[in-house]
């Protein structure tokens, strides 16, 4: 097994390699290493390799590709600790809690799930009218574009099912978490055939744009913002490229008056603040009934006060910094706007702008107008607006009025009532008494402008394959 230093040495840029970028720890400001920055020429070379490798990879049996994926999962597991340390240093998330070690473990679990999900040939009809089967064939080369918030795990969500179905992959990682994903790919490529999995670290405006426009890419998988998703739709349209888009969310939670505030407080906290709030399907606006509003705010604040934030390599911390200055500025702007509007700061809202690192304190904002900026815009950070309501129909209307609909949650001691309410919410997933939990066998994706297509499980495998009916 490689050490952190050995793994880092394998992925940093070398002298004379071309354009490079310095990578700094968002918690300390320390230099981690030098990342390569590649361009369109390197992308075309990567597509060449993927195209050349794809026929032989597709010609393998399903069992043979499954075996390769399981060996890749074993390789990730063997390198878990150095991968987690690099992820913590580059992304900022702590090692412990639902963070860096958790994410690397998720890479292992999702790779094994993609390998282990059965996808038999479907018999559509078999009677006097005829016989027909549904098969799922490889598309070809899949272009994957992964984000900076869960850079390793979301890359795996794109890579593993694509490979399972006989495609090869060209991956463009986020520009601010390049080293983490380079390391993940390096570990996987120790056991995968050459050319099956390729990575091109480069800017979205050049490499990402060229990847989405390439007529040699049969499928694009993208996780990121809605505006970028719309540009991908436009760029890929001339080639009728298949798309799976998991786009921005501004998830709502509705707390009904029958809850026990103390009982739900910790789940509320992690629904909102997992990965320091930097999660597409995090709870980002919380509507609480007037009967339990003050108690919910109080209990949530008690939980939040006991969740330490700091440098990720320090074992006690479970919250970290924002990953980059641009995201810090977004959170800071939205909280300042809420404060100026007269909303009540329950805790936080006062970052130390002179300290190293992009730390924004855990922030709860109460008694805020339902149409204030912090409610309407996705903050993607550790600041939660808590909106008071008295009529559940009004809460549903508020939850549904935005153009996005990735996830949502309903909180109630009456599960049947919660399910009835869930059916009225426009979101790809509605959780009950929790928020944001994912399972590799449960399809995930958005409604409205939170994207289209589904990942995970059988639907996720079908999404990276070309359905073909064989009739007769």
Question: What do you see in this structure?
Answer:
With 472 residues, the protein is an alpha/beta fold. The protein folds into two domains: 4-247 and 450-471, Aldehyde Dehydrogenase, Chain A, domain 1 (3-Layer(aba) Sandwich); 251-439, 3-Layer(aba) Sandwich (Aldehyde Dehydrogenase, Chain A, domain 2). It contains 16 helices and 20 strands. It has helices at residues 4-11, 40-59, 62-78, 80-91, 100-116, 151-164, 178-188, 204-213, 226-236, 261-273, 293-305, 325-340, 373-376, 392-400, 415-422, 457-463, and strands at 20-24, 31-36, 122-127, 130-138, 141-145, 168-172, 197-199, 219-223, 242-246, 251-255, 283-289, 344-347, 363-366, 383-389, 404-405, 407-411, 429-432, 447-448, 451-452, 465-471. Strand 5 (141-145), helix 6 (151-164) and strand 6 (168-172) form a beta-alpha-beta unit. The longest helix has 20 residues, at 40-59. The model has no long low-confidence stretch (mean pLDDT 97). Keywords: Oxidoreductase.
Question: What's the SSE blueprint?
Answer:
Layout: H1 4-11, E1 20-24, E2 31-36, H2 40-59, H3 62-78, H4 80-91, H5 100-116, E3 122-127, E4 130-138, E5 141-145, H6 151-164, E6 168-172, H7 178-188, E7 197-199, H8 204-213, E8 219-223, H9 226-236, E9 242-246, E10 251-255, H10 261-273, E11 283-289, H11 293-305, H12 325-340, E12 344-347, E13 363-366, H13 373-376, E14 383-389, H14 392-400, E15 404-405, E16 407-411, H15 415-422, E17 429-432, E18 447-448, E19 451-452, H16 457-463, E20 465-471
Parallel strand pairs: 5-6, 5-8, 6-7, 8-9, 10-11, 10-16, 11-14, 13-14, 16-17
Antiparallel strand pairs: 1-2, 3-4, 4-20, 9-19, 12-13, 15-18
């Amino acid at each position: 097994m490689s050490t952190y230093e050995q793994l880092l040495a394998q992925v940093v840029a070398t002298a004379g390699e071309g354009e490079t970028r310095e990578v700094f720890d968002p918690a300390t400001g320390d230099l981690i290493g030098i990342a390569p920055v590649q361009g369109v020429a390197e992308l075309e070379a990567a597509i060449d390799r993927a195209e050349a490798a794809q026929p032989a990879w597709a010609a393998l049996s399903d069992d043979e590709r499954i075996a390769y994926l399981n060996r890749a999962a074993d390789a990730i597991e063997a390198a878990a600790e150095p991968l987690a340390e690099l992820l913590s240093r580059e992304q900022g998330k702590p090692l412990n809690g639902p963070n860096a070690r958790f994410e690397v473990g998720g890479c292992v679990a999702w790779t094994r799930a993609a390998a282990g999900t059965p996808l038999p040939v479907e018999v559509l009809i078999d009677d006097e009218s005829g016989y027909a089967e549904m098969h799922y064939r490889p598309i070809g080369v899949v272009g994957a574009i992964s984000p900076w918030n869960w850079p390793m795990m979301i890359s795996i969500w794109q890579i593993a099912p694509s490979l399972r179905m006989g495609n090869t992959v060209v991956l463009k990682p986020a520009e601010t978490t390049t080293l983490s994903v380079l390391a993940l790919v390096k570990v996987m490529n120790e056991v995968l055939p050459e050319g099956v999995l390729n990575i091109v670290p480069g800017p979205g405006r050049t490499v990402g744009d060229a990847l989405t426009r390439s007529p040699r890419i049969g499928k694009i998988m993208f996780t990121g913002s809605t505006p970028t998703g719309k540009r991908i739709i436009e760029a890929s349209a001339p080639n009728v490229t298949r798309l799976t888009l998991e786009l921005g969310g501004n998830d709502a939670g509705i707390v009904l008056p029958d809850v026990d505030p103390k009982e739900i407080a910790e789940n509320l906290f992690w629904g909102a603040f997992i990965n320091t709030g930097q999660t597409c399907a995090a709870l980002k606006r919380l509507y609480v009934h007037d009967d339990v509003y003050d108690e919910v705010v109080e209990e949530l604040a008690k939980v939040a006060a006991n969740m330490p934030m700091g440098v990720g390599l320090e074992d006690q911390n479970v919250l970290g910094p924002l990953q980059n200055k641009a995201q810090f500025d977004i959170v800071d702007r939205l909280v300042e706007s809420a404060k100026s509007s007269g909303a009540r700061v329950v805790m936080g809202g006062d970052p130390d702008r002179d300290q190293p690192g992009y730390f924004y304190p855990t922030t709860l904002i109460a008694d805020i107008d339902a149409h204030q900026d912090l409610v309407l815009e996705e903050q993607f950070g550790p600041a939660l607006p808590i909106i008071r309501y008295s009529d559940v129909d009004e809460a549903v209307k508020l939850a549904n009025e935005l153009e996005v609909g990735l996830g949502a949650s309903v909180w109630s001691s009456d599960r049947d009532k919660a399910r009835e309410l869930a059916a009225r919410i426009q979101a790809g997933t509605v959780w009950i008494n929790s928020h944001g939990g994912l399972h590799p066998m449960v399809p995930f994706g958005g409604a409205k402008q939170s994207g289209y297509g589904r990942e995970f499980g059988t639907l996720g495998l079908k999404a990276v394959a070309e359905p073909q009916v064989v009739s007769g």
